Amino acid sequence: MYDIKALYEAESVSDAIRLRLAHPEAQIIAGGSDVLVQMREGKRAGKELISIYMLDELRGVRLDEDDNIRIGSLTSFSHITRDPIIQQHCSVLGEAVDQVGSPQIRNIGTIGGNTCNGVTSADSASTLHALEAIVELTGADGVRRLPIHDFYIKAGVVDIRAEAGEIQTAILIPKESYENCYGKYIKYGMRNAMEIASLGCSVNVRLSPDKKYIRRCRIAYGVAGPVPMRVPSAEAVANGSPLTREMIDEFALAVLLDIQPRDSWRASKAFRQHIAVEMARRALTGSIERAGGVIV
Hints:
Low-confidence stretches: none
Shape: globular
Order of helices and strands: EHEHEEEHHHHHHEEHEEEHEEEEHHH
Strand order of the largest sheet: 4-5-10-6-7
Number of strands: 14
Number of helices: 13
Strand content: 15-25%
Largest sheet: 5 strands, antiparallel
């Protein structure tokens, strides 16, 4: 059923780096919910695989020394959703990954695999962009960190340098992006479960102390372009603005200045543009309400 040339099982992060350097064309596999399906379809037939599934050091959620939320790349979706740190500080990410596939997929699928797969429809991707997440890569030259919007190079391709033997080891949510921030993720698909997003929208806001103005707003989409993307034109409308229906309507329409959806069998470009506006309106409204704001 699976055409696998060879399987190497890493015993540590350093061993995984060694294996990547020795086999630069090999495919990293963690939970396998993406890679094995692709192999069965023939897209990765005959590939060498490097399994990092046994590296427990890459699992778990914790606060680092700067109070950034550190999520190990092998942390499963179900663990992220249930984790008390995520629930307390960043519940929108737990809600987003809880919409991935089925319970079985969420138990085996990992946040690292979801991002390294490079697809714009990944349910974690738009929320991680709205949270201005940082991707940690570890290789022969040490540790490298880069903003998640720089991690995605083009459709289906991310910045993991085989020549440096890099693997993704963590995703970090900066304290600035979650402290006193509230968000909402909305996914549109033809079904309520086991569905790849036709469009995904995530908004994250921080209100002023009196809860009358938006101090910080981030909005990001999946499937609105070849890679997950922020929407700066809409963010500029919201930042510093009072909580009014007029502002929310202007914010929602402004997303059309930046998004670049395409026609596909799942949805037409025109339909994606139409629902993008409504999703922005609902996601911002929901984020404001979660933050305790009142829209006038």
